[in-house]
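FAQ: What does a ligand-bound record look like?

Like this one, built around S-adenosylmethionine:
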Amino acid sequence: MNPNKDLWEKGDFTRIAATMRESGKSLVEQLGIKPGLKVLDLGCGDGTTALPAAVTGADVVGVDIASNLVEAANRRAQELGLANCRFQEGDASNLQQLADKTFDLVVSIFGAMFAPRPFDVAKEMVRVTRPGGRIVMGNWIPNDPTLVAQILKISSSYTPPPPDGFVSPMTWGIEDNVVERFTAAGIPADSISFARDVFSFNYPGSSSAFAAEFKNYYGPTMNAFAAAEMAGRAADLQKELEELFERQNQSADKTQTSISPTFLRVTISV
Ligand SMILES: C[S@@+](CC[C@H](N)C(=O)[O-])C[C@H]1O[C@@H](n2cnc3c(N)ncnc32)[C@H](O)[C@@H]1O
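The answer part, i.e. the structure of the complex:
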């Protein structure tokens, strides 16, 4: 049993990913991808960044721990007629199926941050990047007041404490932790840079309907509801989440939901 894999195979993350396509495409446009560039998308989900990169002409490999998401990504690539990308199952903490110095760009948008053993993750990302290449990570920021950090914070307050030794994925949103992990992997600190950015979620329904998508299809929230139900607190959790989504909704038309949470963008020159 692998709790990390179980968490992300739970529900159906493609329901959430479908609301993230606009920012996935625009982030890729900012990465200066040229035809033939070798790109690894780590924790690729159903291809929110990998597929726009392949459309741009890059030679893309997507790796994800969840077999259902790998399947969905391969299906989407086939529907788009893209032969220059492939998706496979793998763990960002141990990319044994990938050779050293293979990729010009390793990108991981809210993906590798969820893998266990963050020092191994940094080491693996560096190992598979060719010298002169780049690593770009998007990481949610702990205690940030915007959507996803708050969903994860609220969800964890309803779930039993993690086992001893568990390192919170949110520590990837702390600059000092990121520097510590990549310097341990051999990267000089001055080759690591940080920026705050936003990623949009656009949902064609009300904020409470969007909150329900997380309740029904997003692993971390599904686990929180399961624990809250056992403790007789599901209604409290539902209320907290609905209030959060309503507060964060920037759409003037309240039959639609548009939310743009902040994330930490990390760029590393290898
Ligand atoms: C929040 S989703 C983001 C997916 C995608 N990058 C996107 O922007 O739509 C997190 C992804 O990380 C993947 N993931 C979690 N732990 C992983 C691990 N150890 N190795 C590889 N992928 C992992 C999950 O399966 C999931 O697809």
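Follow-up question: can I read anything off the structure? Yes, for example: The pocket of S-adenosylmethionine is lined by residues 4, 8, 13, 17, 20, 43-45, 48-49, 63-66, 69, 91-93, 109-111, 114-115 (CB under 6 Å).
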